[in-house]
Amino acid sequence: MTTHDNKPAIRAFLAQYFGEHRLADDADIFATGLVNSLFVMQLVLFVEGEFGMAVEDDDLEMENFSSVDAIDALITRKRSAAVSR
């Protein structure tokens, strides 16, 4: 099984919105107060486009998108599920 390092792409996407504000991989993106509901939609579209996967209704939980680590974990789970089918 090939492992993917998703975090550089996730960090690059987030940097567009956080500018000089540096986020730790486990930092809660939404706790910063720097994002809004439009950002959430853009984040979902980024995950779908960048990683070639559909974000299903069941995936639309805040904890799946709350940090770099959480987004990476979601992508890894979805890839693993796709491989095991």
UniProtKB/TrEMBL annotation:
<feature type="domain" description="Carrier">
    <location>
        <begin position="1"/>
        <end position="79"/>
    </location>
</feature>
<protein>
    <submittedName>
        <fullName>Acyl carrier protein</fullName>
    </submittedName>
</protein>
<dbReference type="InterPro" id="IPR009081">
    <property type="entry name" value="PP-bd_ACP"/>
</dbReference>
<dbReference type="InterPro" id="IPR036736">
    <property type="entry name" value="ACP-like_sf"/>
</dbReference>
